[in-house]
């Protein structure tokens, strides 16, 4: 079941099961625990099911402290915001220190310029004694030495600030990348997918480009997981993600959409063109013979089903997702391990 299917009898059954799960583990009936269990039982959030099952395996149950940690890890954006705020404050502090150093240097330069002006006025006098000239030269030498030392100190401060600012910028980029990347596979996560789909839809409409969305998942993955275990299942998911990423076009986005489900945003590509790209992906996955890393046992062949639809004038992001999802189900109904693409209100199986 997908997140968008929480309506009708299936939706009610899913909701009741989530409530039962919360009650069975004697958890408080909070919205957070309900959301956590919905995602757990339907495997909507990558990594969550494995972590909950690990907790249950170790202790036989979940407690409120564990669910709070899980909710904060998988659903709460406050930690990300705190990291950004903290890093931004440090960055502002470093920039302020650099500006203050430059301001001080400006004042020192004005002082040195004043010393030069005073010396020039005194040297213009025709009746200066040798001792007076030596005094003027000594003052200029002292001022020049002081200015040189201050410049060296300024250079050091600016170099330190520049290095710190560079590190903070890299840290911000790391935080941003982690927030938008699926931890298991390294491809885009659901948040980045949602953002990019909105952007590409807007772009396609404004510039008149075609846009195709593909949704795909691994065939019979649940039985595969039951046979080989979640760690081996994760190995397969990583392989699939890497294959999709390798064969996607440069400006296309591969995202992990759910547990074993992926989405591919394909700008400037028609549904017919997308069919050929997806077929190459399907074949590349099908022919690969996988082995279990821990034992070397053969896992056989993994297959995937693909569904895709092209953006129309009437589409929103949600209807484009729904139409692509319908094509995925068409591929599965037709026997799996194939590509189903909606072409001009017709479905073509490749």
Q: Would you write up a description of this structure?
A:
The protein is α+β, with helices and mostly antiparallel strands and 350 residues long. It has helices at 8-24, 31-42, 48-59, 64-74, 78-123, 130-180, 190-207, 221-228, 230-247, 271-287, 317-333; strands at residues 211-218, 253-256, 261-267, 289-291, 298-301, 304-310, 339-343, 346-349. The chain has a six-stranded mixed beta sheet, sandwiched between helices. Helix 11 (317-333) links the parallel strand 6 and strand 7 (339-343). The longest helix is centred in the middle third of the chain and has 51 residues, at 130-180. It is elongated, with a radius of gyration of 32 Å. The model is unreliable at 346-350 (pLDDT under 50).
Query: How is the biggest beta sheet arranged?
Result: 6 strands, mixed
Distinct helical segment count: 11
Summarize the amount of helix as a percent range. 55-70%
Rg over C-alpha atoms, rounded to the nearest angstrom = 32 Å
Strand content: 5-15%
Tell me the total number of β-strands: 8
- Write down the overall geometry: elongated
SSE order, as H and E? HHHHHHHEHHEEHEEEHEE
Distance separating the two termini: 25 Å
**Uncertain ranges:** 346-350
Biggest sheet strand line-up: 2-3-1-6-7-8
Structural class: alpha+beta
Mean pLDDT: 78
Task: Please tag this protein with its features.
6-stranded mixed β-sheet; 8 strands; single chain; disordered C terminus; 350 residues; alpha+beta; 11 helices
List the helices and strands and how they pair.
Elements: H1 8-24, H2 31-42, H3 48-59, H4 64-74, H5 78-123, H6 130-180, H7 190-207, E1 211-218, H8 221-228, H9 230-247, E2 253-256, E3 261-267, H10 271-287, E4 289-291, E5 298-301, E6 304-310, H11 317-333, E7 339-343, E8 346-349
Parallel strand pairs: 6-7
Antiparallel strand pairs: 1-3, 1-6, 2-3, 4-5, 7-8
């Amino acid at each position: 079941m997908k997140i968008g299917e929480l309506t009708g009898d299936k939706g009610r059954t899913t909701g009741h099961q989530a409530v039962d799960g919360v009650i069975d583990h004697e958890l408080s009936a909070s919205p957070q625990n309900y959301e956590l269990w919905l995602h757990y039982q339907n495997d909507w959030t990558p990594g969550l099911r494995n972590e909950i099952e690990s907790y249950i395996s170790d202790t036989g149950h979940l407690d409120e402290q564990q669910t709070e940690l899980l909710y904060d890890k998988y659903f709460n954006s406050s930690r990300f915001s705190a990291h950004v705020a903290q890093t931004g404050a440090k960055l502002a502090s470093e920039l302020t220190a650099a500006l203050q150093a430059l301001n001080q240097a400006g004042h020192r330069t004005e002082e040195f310029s004043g010393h030069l002006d005073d010396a020039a006025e005194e040297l213009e006098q025709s009746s200066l004694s040798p001792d007076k000239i030596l005094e003027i030269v000594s003052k200029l030498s002292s001022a020049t030495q002081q200015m040189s030392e201050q410049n060296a100190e300024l250079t050091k401060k600016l170099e330190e600030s520049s290095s710190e600012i560079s590190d903070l910028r890299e840290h911000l980029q790391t935080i941003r990348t982690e927030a938008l990347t699926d931890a298991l596979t390294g491809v885009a996560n659901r948040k980045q997918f949602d953002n990019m789909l909105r952007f590409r839809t807007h772009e396609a409409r404004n510039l008149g480009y075609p846009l195709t969305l593909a949704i795909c998942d691994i065939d019979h993955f649940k039985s595969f997981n039951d046979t080989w275990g979640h760690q081996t299942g994760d190995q397969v998911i990583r392989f699939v993600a890497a294959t999709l990423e390798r064969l996607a076009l440069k400006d296309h986005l591969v995202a992990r959409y759910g547990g074993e489900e992926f989405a591919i945003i394909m700008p400037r590509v028609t549904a017919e063109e997308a069919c050929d790209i997806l077929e190459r992906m399907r074949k590349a996955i099908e022919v690969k013979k996988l082995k279990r890393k821990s034992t070397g046992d053969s896992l056989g062949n993994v297959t995937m089903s693909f569904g895709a639809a092209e953006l129309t004038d009437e589409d929103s992001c949600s209807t484009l997702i729904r139409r692509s999802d319908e094509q995925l189900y068409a591929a599965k109904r037709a026997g799996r391990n194939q590509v189903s693409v909606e072409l001009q209100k017709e479905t073509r199986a490749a």
